[in-house]
Amino acid sequence: MRRGRFVAVSIGTCLVLGVPVGVLLFGLLTGQPSLILATDIAGVPVLLYAFISSGPFAVVAGLGGSALVLALRDVLRFRGSGTAWVATCAGCGLAAGVCVAAALLLLGEAGRFQWALPESAGLAGAVCGAVLGLLGWRSAIV
């Protein structure tokens, strides 16, 4: 897979997969599992708000995650098994998600559920990282 395409796929995965998974995990952690299907008083889906508010962060996470994966491939010459590669990418996604959550916490944008933000963002990042690792491994990125 070419570098530019991998970066685009990383950003797309973080947006299309990461945001809904993050909302679902946040809802589960806060005791509101139906949050992903909820709407506000005007009928606007909460998921739409999630895409609007966390879309830029997902783009940054996708850029950072793809840069880290490409650095593992190029600079460190990572040549592990497929399982190790997917686990490493999941770890990179976890780190990216926790960093995004830390940035939101530092900016004071976390609201009253500050404790659930790092867990949900980190787990959503790990899911995205694992998917990207699997895609990268299957398309011979390593």
Please characterize this protein's 3D structure.
This protein has one domain (3-138). It is built from 4 helices and no strands. It has helices spanning 3-29, 46-74, 82-107, 116-138. The termini are close together.
Summarize the structure.
The protein has one domain.
Mean pLDDT: 81
Write down the oligomeric state.
Answer: single chain
Approximately how much helix is present in the residues? over 70%
Sketch the major β-sheet.
Answer: none
The helix/strand order is HHHH
Task: State Rg.
Answer: 16 Å
List low-confidence stretches.
none
In total, how many beta strands?
A: 0
Write the layout of secondary structure elements.
Blueprint: H1 3-29, H2 46-74, H3 82-107, H4 116-138
Primary descriptors:
single chain; 142 residues; mainly alpha
